Amino acid sequence: MTEYFGAYEVFHTLSRKAAAGLIGADNLVGDRYSLELEIIDGVHIAWIVNKFDHKVGFLNPSVSRHLSLLAAEGLELCAVLSFVAYSEGSPQNESGFTDLPETPEFQEGLQETDGYYWGEVAVFAFNPAYKEAYTTFISGVSKRIEDNIRPEINLQAEGIKKIIESDGSWSPDKTVPMPKPQKGMALLKCRRSISDKLIEQGRKRNKGCYLVAWVFLLALVALVIFGLKSCGLF
């Protein structure tokens, strides 16, 4: 049985419309996602599902098939959002995304030629016998990703041993750089902002931080209005 698998993988969305939620507060950098495995029209698809049970994107068929094999071994799967990006043009020539199911929901998105949303997630598969250690490890990785630090998660036997022996408190020193920006590409999310962190506290029903979040947002609006008045715009 495989003990552990970790890698940063590219994901795509069905369409620009379907990707709208990625920009909002329901999907923050560092959020943990479940992976829902399906075979559609004979093609393996791993859906990325957020904590509100919304499918926000999917991994390419070859990665999805590999994850299906790991799940068949009994490993647990999850993912962590690393970044969200927007690129001009069409996604139909993207590597690994050319053999998608011949169904309308996938093919319509491939026909869009005026831009598309995509991103990367840190994907994990682990032996549930050490679930507590791996959960702690993944939480630590998530915290670093929130600050745009991407720890190396493609670990060899020594790194896996350190996770288990430390009960998940160990974290790799080595990091993985962000992809090099390409022409027509814009990074939309790659770290958590102050407002994102306040929103997360609101999610946890921390009333004090929730109130601070509203105060922060109202103060920001007031500052913008003050700036516009200072410029004589109204």
**Major β-sheet profile:** 6 strands, antiparallel, barrel
Query: What separation lies between the terminal Cα atoms?
Result: 68 Å
The low-confidence runs, each spanning 5 or more residues with pLDDT under 50, are none
Which structural class is indicated by helix and strand composition? alpha+beta
> What does the radius of gyration come to?
20 Å
Number of helices: 7
Order of helices and strands: EHEEEHEHEHHEHH
The total of beta strands comes to 7
The outline comes out as: globular
| Global mean pLDDT | 88
Strand content: 15-25%
Record the strand order, biggest sheet: 1-4-3-2-5-6
Estimate percent helicity.
Answer: 25-40%
Write a brief structural summary.
The protein is built from seven helices and seven strands, in the order βαβββαβαβααβαα. The chain has 234 residues and is of the alpha+beta class.
List keywords for this structure.
globular, 7 helices, 234 residues, 35% helix, single chain, alpha+beta
Task: Give me the secondary-structure topology.
Blueprint (H helix, E strand, L loop, with lengths): L3 E9 L7 H4 L8 E9 L2 E7 L5 E5 L1 H12 L3 E12 L16 H7 L5 E11 L4 H16 L10 H9 L19 E5 L4 H10 L3 H24 L4
Helix pairs in contact: 6-7
